[in-house]
Design goal:
It is a single chain. The chain has a two-stranded antiparallel sheet with strand order 1-2. The protein is mainly α. It contains 20 helices and 4 strands. It is 63% helix and 2% strand. The termini are far apart. Its main location: membrane. Belongs to the ammonia transporter channel (TC 1.A.11.2) family. It is a multi-pass membrane protein.
Length: 494
Amino acid sequence: MDNSTIGIAYQSNPPSVPDWLNKGDNAWQLVAATLVGCQSMPGLVVLYGSIVKKKWAVNSAFMALYAFASTLIVWVLVGYKMAFGDRLLPFWGKAGAALSQKYLIHRASLPATEHHYHNGTIETPMTEPFYPQATLVFFEFVFAAITIILLAGSVLGRMNIKAWMIFAPLWLLFSYTIGAFSLWGGGFLYHWGVIDYSGGYVIHLASGVSGFTAAYWVGPRLKSDRERFSPNNILLMLTGAGMLWLGWSGFNGGAPYAANITAAVAVLNTHVCAATSLLVWTLLDVIFFSKPSVIGAVQGMMTGLVCITPGAGLVHTWAAIVMGIFAGCIPWFTMMVLHKKSALLQKVDDTLAVFHTHAVAGLLGGVLTGLLAVPQLSSFDLPVPGEKGTFYGGGISQLFKQIVGALFVIGWNIFSTTAILWVIALFIPLRMPDEQLMIGDDAAHGEEAYALWGDGDKFDATRHETIVTNTGGDEDNMQRQLNVMGARGVTIQL
């Protein structure tokens, strides 16, 4: 039957469906990207806005919201090609825009991923998914955005919002793109054979290390906030955590760039590991503190999701359980025991313990992947033929590669984060002044999350300007003054 006699939806080659386009792969990749996007917006926006003290709800949510929006614009202007374009340096791609129709409607490709034998002949062709470049640009954007938002968790409750607005795009350009190109886009670690299936190093180790570094340079919260920083809404926090958990189906399920066997294995392993880690963390809380903690359960969920990410599509499901056990134990130990014994960890005010839940768990997952990656599953997805875990014949070399890859990510993120913050500090203070820190959202944004005082009346700064003055540097005296005048977010502690 001639195409002209049937409906366009049923034609073998309608105009918008070229021969190379796989509708199933394209649909799944867009869904996966949307799931990951929902982890950030609204997932982490809701989680951050509810897990912090009431007076920081708006500020914390806005930091995540701003990072999401600013990342997208920088990404399509120059960032995407720096992370996934043609090679400029062994660790960096050539900057360029991803905006034109000519570029976005052609078949997606990662030009620097072509892998060669030592004699120069092609061993593995470059990655070319069966959907348009626009799909891949959007998919990789949501990973970049969530990395910066996770980093923000380390500096909530005191970072100058103007400094954050400058830091977020600069960190994307000079830190994230280097890790992404090196491990995913065809850089030297990619071709050497370091395994990072879906971001254990690129996203979680990077955000944890950079967050900890940023927390060091920005400085701590107020003493009163460090001592008491109870969530303002635990049920809403669980809503955000639920979006984060279920959204991880797209996080790890989309990593193969196709709706294939690897994606299915990755999704199952992701949730098995997360559930195992949550249960182990909760059990440890019960054993040592006599009661389960909802916040602890969320932390355990997070460490499980992070730990499985470097190898979600590459390991057996029983191995995902093993990884979940380690994910529930090791970060719990570093957070609950080691943290209290380490002078450095005590000094650095990592608000949401991103170092433990992401850096420690991401490094743990990368090392375990180097041990447990199965040859058959690895052959489906990894670019270097013969990559497999140490326990399956990969020898000590694969474990060595995983450690070296981690060290590169750690070193570069410490350096780049420090350099960016030093430059910003020359022009803008990194930390809010104590007077603003005492008040919170109303001082930083002129807005508050809840109208729990004065029936929604706004705080009149001119009326109280003579009272809120830190002439002697006495934080406790300032707190008493604010209590007397009834400043919102201070008198009501949730």
